[in-house]
Amino acid sequence: MSEPILEVSGVAKTFILHLREGAKLPVVEGAGFDLHAGECVALGGPSGAGKSSLLKMVYGNYRVDAGAIRVRDGEETVDVATTAPRRLIKLRDTTMGYVSQFLRVIPRVGALDVVAEPLVHDGVPVAQARARAGALLARLNLPERLWQLPPATFSGGEQQRVNIARGLIAHRPLLLMDEPTASLDAANRGVVVELIEEKKRAGVGILGIFHDTEVREAVCDRVIDVTSFGRAAA
Ligand SMILES: Nc1ncnc2c1ncn2[C@@H]1O[C@H](COP(=O)(O)OP(=O)(O)OP(=O)(O)O)[C@@H](O)[C@H]1O
Ligand SMILES: [Mg+2]
């Protein structure tokens, strides 16, 4: 098999609750798994198991106490756990995308430009980026009358579709997704399943949290049970 695009090994993390007299909350210990190109792996386990936390560690939003998170970036391998912030930003620009659970709304920017922005950032001409954004929003059944409006007042499901379109529009070899379909109806969940399958065919490796069983079964090749990463008692 090809070299993994993501290799997590020996990752441990304990939250220190400063407002609770420094109480310790261990989340994961000895977390380890691989992810290959074209593969979709789900993080599983009950609420509070540490799925979102682990995803944030891979993206570099949460520091880890121990272990390595190696991401292949072309010919190089970057360890998210120890790399410099500037290298992490570059890694996110070229290699690692993140679809959060909720859209972080940018004031006064219309939906079409919110979605087109990652392509513009990659150097795609604005008109072309907008055309691709429109095509993606149309596939996700976002009514065209909303495209020029800022998503702040959109419904939960409309915002989630804008968020998914923004997260999927540019090519990133590694995609992290935290419950991308939680507020969607069945028809739009189906569209997201198709989009994820297209990404896999394009060789993208996906690590995600998919609460919806149907979506998970449709797109995921394996489930990693986060509770197996020994969450020791405090
Ligand atoms: N920044 C933080 N500071 C302190 N504790 C945190 C922080 N982030 C998460 N936790 C705690 O870590 C544990 C795991 O949280 P996490 O959000 O990773 O769970 P999850 O598996 O994603 O759950 P859900 O399925 O409900 O989304 C929880 O007990 C949570 O309270
Ligand atoms: Mg979560």
Automatic annotation (TrEMBL):
InterPro entries, A to Z: AAA+_ATPase, ABC_transporter-like_ATP-bd, ABC_transporter-like_CS, ABC_transpr_LolD-like, CP_lyase_PhnL, P-loop_NTPase
Domain of life: Bacteria
Alphabetical keyword list: ATP-binding, Lyase, Nucleotide-binding
Species this chain originates from: Ancylobacter koreensis
Pfam family, one: ABC_tran
Gene responsible for this protein: phnL
ABC transporter domain mapped to chain residues: 6-234
Annotated SMART domains: AAA
NCBIfam families the record matches: CP_lyasePhnL
Organism taxonomic ancestry: Bacteria, Pseudomonadati, Pseudomonadota, Alphaproteobacteria, Hyphomicrobiales
A GO MF label: lyase activity
Protein family (similarity comment): Belongs to the ABC transporter superfamily.
The protein, known as: Phosphonate C-P lyase system protein PhnL
Statement: the UniProt record of this protein carries the keyword Lipid biosynthesis: no
